Amino acid sequence: MSTTNPPQLFLLADHIKLSLLERQRAISLNLSPNSQDGQISRSLDQLRSGIDSLESQVQDVPDDSITSQLPRLRSQLSDLTSQFAGPSSTPTSPTLTSPNNPSLTSDFAAAQKKPRPTSKSVRFSDNPSSTAAPAVDDDPNRAELFPYRDDPADAGYSDQSSMSNQQIHEYHSQVIREQDDQLDRLGESIGRQRELSMQMGDELEGQAMLLDEVEEGVDRHQAQFHRARGRLERIGRKAKENWSLTVIVVLIIILVLLIVITK
Q1: Phi-psi label, residue 30: left if phi above 0, alpha if psi -120 to 50, beta otherwise
Q2: Is-contact 28 91, C-beta < 8 A?
Q3: Is residue 153 part of a domain?
Q4: pLDDT band, very low/low/confident/very high, at 117 (cuts 50, 70, 90)
Q5: Contact by Cβ (8 Å): 93, 83
């Protein structure tokens, strides 16, 4: 026996939104977003099944409070499915950035923060003698810092040949700090995802306990109904069996009354 309600589905939709926002952050950091695709797909299927269950429920027992929420749930399911199935360059929809629960506003704001761009500082090459800058050749210590370059002709990288050893060290330290900050923010986002998942688990456990109690009550009343129905059927059978005897007794009483009256 399974029951679904709109608040539970809106909470699930918020969970999917946060997962999609974290997926976009991973793409922006050039990380693989496929690790959460399976979970997002299962959550979308669960949301779709919940909406179908609500539609079947209102068909059997009309409920205006549920019927009024169905269009909004269908719209969010359509937007989230399009956002998940679309390419990484698809613009973020307003549905994805707007939580259903106001208490999650801070989590959504943190998930939408854009990571600071980090420029690549070290380039490698299989032939350092032909690609190293003249200033690097003049300083053996600098040559140890930049022995290789992957694409020296790439204009998108900054020229570090004019930097001193201390400047290079400070520059690399800054890049490492920025990467650490990005990893810290990613860790915080994962922690919020875990906390939200735990809250959803607690809510689902509470719902399951309530459903178990309702199911026990329904089973108990159904057993009482079956017993009462059995008693009625037995009374009906006995009445049919004694019908002829009842008619004879009534006719004898009428005959006795007629004899008494005629005398």
Answers
A1: left
A2: no
A3: yes
A4: low
A5: yes
pTM of the predicted structure, to 2 decimals: 0.41
Number of domains, the chain = 1
Residue ranges in the chain assigned as alpha helix (H): 6-28, 37-60, 64-67, 70-85, 94-97, 105-111, 128-131, 134-138, 140-145, 165-241, 243-262
The answer to whether the beta carbons of residues 182 and 205 sit under 8 Å apart is no
Q: Classify residue 152: in a domain, yes or no.
A: yes
What whole-number distance in Å separates Cα of residue 202 and Cα of residue 257? 78
Residue 160 lies in a domain: yes
Q: How many residues does the chain have?
A: 263
Position with higher pLDDT, 78 vs 93: 78
Are 146 and 56 contacting, i.e. CB atoms less than 8 angstroms apart?
A: no
In contact, 200 and 11? CB cutoff 8 Å: yes
What is the CA angle 30-34-36, rounded to 5? 115
- φ/ψ (deg, to 5) at 216: -65, -40
Main-chain dihedrals φ then ψ at residue 78, nearest 5 degrees: -65, -45
What single letter denotes the amino acid at residue 104? L
Q: Is residue 47 part of a domain?
A: no
Domain that holds residue 151: 128-171
**What single string gives the DSSP state of each residue in 1-35?**
-----HHHHHHHHHHHHHHHHHHHHHHHTT--GGG
pLDDT greater than 60 at residue 97:
yes
